[in-house]
């Protein structure tokens, strides 16, 4: 088996866990491939006793990786999706950060989880992505997101207007700081912080959530994910920000933004003993009596 190690940054306080992962994989005679920027940061601190390979991009992982270990937090998983894309390479999220909805494997579960993965004792959780189409080809060939597409005003001036059409039927004009169109995966991210609902993976929905809307009676709405959602944005400032997960581009009021379900899914590894409902109970402290 060929295991890829992916991370955005190297943190010294995570050093014991990097060493633990590498030593365990080498002990199991697994072929290791490391994301080149991460390898360059790890090299002075982590000893590799066996030959490894490195990968830089989407083209490299197709040949060098069977399973991707995303080491960090949820933001690291979102970045790993831009590397894996449509290869169907399973992604295991090892959470060295804080909350970790997607990277749900904790520091104390690393060894047991590696054992489960090497014995193929896991479930593939197939997650829907959202794709953006524009005349300007914003984001190029990385015009997809696991969590959400978000529109924001570009500065701190007045609110913007986001005109939303669903399957060519007018839904609403949102007077707000912005608008989020989230996948079920993204329902526990930015959308949740704007009072959007939690939607279970596999629900085949998109969630449209306004950001700081002017009209307090406007609420998030859940749509089927086979919907074609078109956005037109206007405001005093003619430039706006569009974000796919953590990647942002500037566009103007002449742009028409079309959102639809992506043609491929991403496989997240879920250990059999875990579940989405376990994760949200744990991460959101549901059922805990705070009065004590």
How would you describe this structure in keywords?
single chain; Rossmann fold; Tumour Suppressor Smad4; six-stranded antiparallel sheet; 7 helices
CATH class of the largest domain: Mainly Beta
How large is the radius of gyration? 20 Å
Number of strands: 17
CATH topology of the largest domain: Tumour Suppressor Smad4
Element-level helix/strand string: EHEHEHEHEHEEEEEEHEEEEEEH
Output the strand order for the largest sheet. 7-6-17-14-9-10
Structural class per helix/strand content?
Answer: alpha+beta
Strand content of the residues, in percent?
A: 35-45%
CATH homolog superfamily of the largest domain: Probable inorganic polyphosphate/atp-NAD kinase, domain 2
* Shape, principal axes of CA atoms: globular
Span from first to last CA? 48 Å
